[in-house]
């Protein structure tokens, strides 16, 4: 049995701060004794259910600075609001869940490729072709690509995305990334945002050394 702290990360590919939180936590897995559990959800559904309509004020400029800080080459399109409002990442998030079920060893890389395509290449992650491209980049084998593309249409995967979204709501989420930390001593805390690693560190008795610490360990 693992004696690590368990961190659940609730995220949606549409959320740029989720991308930062995803990479930040996965990087810290080699720095802190943590297990990271990925929980793709539907941010639109969460906002609707909790009645949140957040303003996108200052986000575009701030994101460019944050991505530099983290060394994640995100691109914030000029038509940022339009880009996000017109996007649909529901099937992308279903694919992230399907990968956890069918190709767990590829699940992280599938999410990463979806985030990369949307937030680095600024390309949609909506059509079958878009999603197939991400699976190929994640080095999923050809039969796996076909199985996963079939699986995202199945009720069990649609339900799993709804279940994760409801679970996030039940633990207080109103935005993303939403992070639940269960420390090894039995304590539990939840956090909103990719910028909470210093206080998460405090909760699990670890020090935060900035966004690039993992690089100095190899
Ligand atoms: N300070 C947080 C901001 C996160 C954030 O603004 N997330 C957006 C989605 S990308 C959200 O859920 N906003 C809801 C709200 O602000 O109420 C961070 O750095 O991660």
From TrEMBL:
<dbReference type="InterPro" id="IPR001853">
    <property type="entry name" value="DSBA-like_thioredoxin_dom"/>
</dbReference>
<protein>
    <recommendedName>
        <fullName>Glutathione S-transferase kappa</fullName>
        <ecNumber>2.5.1.18</ecNumber>
    </recommendedName>
</protein>
<dbReference type="GO" id="GO:0005777">
    <property type="term" value="C:peroxisome"/>
</dbReference>
<keyword id="KW-0808">Transferase</keyword>
<dbReference type="Pfam" id="PF01323">
    <property type="entry name" value="DSBA"/>
</dbReference>
<dbReference type="InterPro" id="IPR014440">
    <property type="entry name" value="HCCAis_GSTk"/>
</dbReference>
<comment type="similarity">
    <text>Belongs to the GST superfamily. Kappa family.</text>
</comment>
<dbReference type="GO" id="GO:0004602">
    <property type="term" value="F:glutathione peroxidase activity"/>
</dbReference>
<dbReference type="InterPro" id="IPR036249">
    <property type="entry name" value="Thioredoxin-like_sf"/>
</dbReference>
<dbReference type="GO" id="GO:0006749">
    <property type="term" value="P:glutathione metabolic process"/>
</dbReference>
<dbReference type="InterPro" id="IPR051924">
    <property type="entry name" value="GST_Kappa/NadH"/>
</dbReference>
<dbReference type="GO" id="GO:0004364">
    <property type="term" value="F:glutathione transferase activity"/>
</dbReference>
<dbReference type="GO" id="GO:0005739">
    <property type="term" value="C:mitochondrion"/>
</dbReference>
């Amino acid at each position: 049995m693992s004696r690590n702290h368990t961190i659940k990360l609730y995220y949606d590919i549409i959320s740029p701060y989720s991308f930062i939180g995803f990479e930040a936590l996965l990087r810290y897995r080699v720095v802190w004794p943590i297990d990271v559990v990925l929980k793709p959800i539907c941010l639109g559904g969460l906002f609707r259910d909790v009645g949140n309509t957040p303003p996108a004020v200052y986000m575009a400029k701030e994101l460019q600075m944050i991505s530099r800080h983290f060394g994640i080459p995100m691109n914030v399109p000029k038509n940022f609001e339009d880009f996000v409002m017109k996007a649909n990442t529901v099937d992308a998030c279903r694919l992230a869940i399907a990968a956890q079920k069918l190709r767990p060893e590829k699940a992280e890389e599938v999410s990463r490729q979806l985030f990369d395509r949307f937030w680095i290449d600024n390309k949609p992650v909506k059509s079958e072709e878009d999603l197939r491209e991400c699976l190929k980049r994640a080095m999923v084998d050809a039969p796996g690509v076909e199985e996963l593309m079939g699986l995202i249409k199945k009720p069990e995967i649609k339900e799993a995305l709804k279940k994760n979204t409801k679970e996030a709501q039940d633990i207080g989420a109103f935005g993303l990334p939403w992070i639940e930390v269960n420390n090894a001593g039995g304590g539990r805390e939840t956090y909103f945002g990719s910028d909470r690693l210093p206080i998460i560190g405090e909760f699990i008795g670890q020090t935060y050394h900035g966004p690039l610490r993992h690089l100095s360990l190899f």
